[in-house]
Amino acid sequence: MTHNHGLEHSPAFFFFDMLTRVLSPYQFNPLNYNPLKSTLEAVVDFERLRRESTIKLFLCATNVRTGKVRVFDNNDVCVRRVLASACLPFLSQAVEIDGEYFWDGGYMGNPALFPLIYNCVSRDIIVIHINPTERLEIPRTAAEIMSRINEISFNSSLLREMRAIAFVTKLIDDGKLIDKNLKRLLVHSIEADDVMQGLGVSSKLNADWEFLMHLHQIGRKRADRWLKAHLTSVGIESTVDIREKYL
Fold first, then answer.
1. What is the pLDDT of residues 26-59, one digit of tens each?
2. 150-161 core/surface letters (b: 16 or more CB in 10 A; e: else)
3. 134-177 pLDDT, tens per residue?
4. CA-to-CA dists, residue 212 to 56, 74, 83, 106, angstroms
């Protein structure tokens, strides 16, 4: 049995979808209320994250004025910076930090890999996909078209970085680079495209607990499957063909 976890038949979703097409978040949410703020404050110990030294955290946001990516690390992390990294411009007002305004980092890095390359020792990068790379069907409704545009836009930065990684890897393998500062990166991928392709546009706004647990279970199953199949390859070889999957 298949389940449609979207909200396509919800009058509330239909009204909200139409509202965001006509009005900006500065108009329909002038008080700038964000329910995620109180949730983050309740469940995340940001002070501990800022003290953490064994795990490196990098959050990306897009500078609205310059169009450049901004990377926040452990020393910077706070509620506002997390909200900035997840700010979708049609749903939320841009988040102000130190006099600059930011939108979701996905427009410039989803995820950005270069902080891992330059600031971490490990050669292994595991990309966990939450958006499908490919869609089997052509989007036809306005909502489907906009959603696919966003997916392509968010994936484009990852594809560009993977192209650069593939280029440098080939140069290293061909013996054309002798710079010891350049690492031969090992790339891995955990995804559930077959599941994500079956979810409707509105599922991205579905915060129903049952649906979230459904996604959680899928994530655990795919991670367990990957660990059983590829854990022994970590540190030794890539487990995804970069050119086939990303280029």
1. 999 999 999 999 999 999 999 999 998 888 999 9
2. bbeebbebbeeb
3. 888 899 988 889 888 888 888 888 999 999 999 999 998 888 87
4. 26, 27, 20, 21
CA–CA gap between residue 87 and residue 98 (Å, rounded): 16
CA distance 124 to 187: 6
DSSP string, 135-168: -SS---SHHHHHHHHHHHHHHHHHHHHHHHHHHH
Q: Pull the structure tokens for residue 202.
A: 């509105």
Q: How far apart (Å, rounded) are the C-alpha atoms in residues 158 and 162?
A: 6
Residues in the chain: 247
Q: Residue 142 contacts by C-beta under 8 Å, 6 or more apart in sequence?
A: 21
pLDDT in tens, 76-116: 999 999 999 999 999 999 999 999 999 999 888 778 899 99
pTM for the full predicted model: 0.85
CB 195 within 8 A of CB 218: yes
Tokens 């102000």 sit at which residue?
96
φ/ψ region of 63 (left if φ > 0, alpha if ψ in -120 to 50, else beta) reads beta
Going through the chain in order, the beta strands assigned E by DSSP cover 59-63, 69-72, 95-97, 100-104, 124-128, 186-190
Nearest Cα to Cα of residue 28 among 14, 12, 16: 16
- List all residues 6 or more positions away from 118 whose beta carbon is below 8 Å from its beta carbon: none
Judged on CB neighbours under 10 Å (0-12, 13-18, 19+), 128 is middle
Q: Give the C-alpha separation, 103 to 106, whole Å.
A: 9
